[in-house]
Design goal:
eight-stranded antiparallel sheet, alpha+beta, Jelly Rolls, 5 helices, eight-stranded mixed sheet, 19% helix
């Protein structure tokens, strides 16, 4: 009697994209640390939610050993670099982050993730804004230890080109007590009350008249105001700062646990995405 293919299939086989991430981490001088099973489970959850093609770049900022240069080499390798693993890939093979040192990173625990100092450190994804439409866009981060002092805005992820007035940012504005998602223009952008942390904060613009801000998969702000058709630019998305025509500004000292860039995701997908991130954070003790 022939054996069932299900019987022959290893029950705990790594997801192919997790295996690819692991190989790229090692090639970058890092190690997978204790993260690999959780990364594999995350990949399967994203597949099951049917939103993989919407996520064009994602980094779970994991792997390696906490507090070491090996940890930095590991956590700078993104899990996803395109809407599929075999099609076009966007941005650098790693996130450019030469200013970070071992003590900025913890793989697991409540301080898990990568922390900036808010003055000299940021990541450059090398993912150009022109690669993806500002009116079919999501930006997301999981973060803790958000800045709580001062009045300046603090950008978690974003870019800006004043000469063309095109931009997309997730930011805090301490002076107004808001968290805000800006995409395409200075009007018609959703916001919510200031958050010192979020298991998954995501801004989505799906058209010229629709934008939503989600926290933990729940809509916390919407806008139906009409915005102008955006221009495009070659400036890339920065993390922990805004890329202002090639220069990092409005930096944050938050601890970031993951980020993503991709196409608009609907409310069902937003909830599933948040659940997948929360499950990963739980598996890593990042609570």
């Amino acid at each position: 009697m022939a054996m069932s293919p299900r019987t022959l299939r290893p029950r705990n086989a790594l997801h192919p994209e997790a295996a690819s991430w692991a190989a790229r981490v090692v090639a970058n001088g890092g190690t997978v640390g204790t993260s690999l099973p959780a990364v594999s489970a995350f990949c399967r959850a994203i597949d099951a939610a049917g939103i993989r093609s919407k996520i064009w770049r994602l980094n779970l900022l994991c792997g390696g050993t906490s507090g070491t240069s090996v940890g930095i080499s590991s956590c700078l390798v993104p899990l996803y670099r395109g809407p599929t693993s075999t099609g076009p890939q966007y941005g650098g093979l790693t996130d450019a982050g030469g200013a970070f040192v071992g003590s900025d990173y913890n793989e697991t625990g409540s301080s898990g993730g990568l922390k900036s100092n808010g003055t000299t450190k940021h990541l450059d994804t090398e993912f150009a804004q022109s690669n993806i439409s500002l009116i079919n866009l999501h930006l997301s981060v999981s973060f803790s230890q958000m800045d709580t002092s001062g009045t300046a805005e603090r950008v978690l992820i974003g870019h800006y080109n004043a000469s063309q007035s095109d931009f997309a940012v997730l930011r805090s504005a301490v002076s107004t007590g808001n968290m805000e998602f800006f995409a395409s223009s200075f009007s018609g952008n959703p916001s919510t009350s200031y958050l010192s942390s979020s298991s998954h904060l995501m801004g989505v613009r799906s058209s010229l008249t629709s934008a939503v801000l989600y926290s933990a998969g729940v809509s916390v702000g919407t806008s139906s105001a009409t915005v102008g058709t955006p221009a495009t630019s070659s400036f890339s998305y920065f993390v922990f700062a805004r890329n202002n025509a090639g220069t990092a500004d409005t930096r944050t000292s938050a601890r970031i646990r993951m980020y993503s860039i991709g196409q608009a995701i609907d409310s069902t997908g937003a909830a599933a995405f948040a659940n997948a991130v929360a499950a990963f954070n739980t598996a890593m003790g990042r609570t």
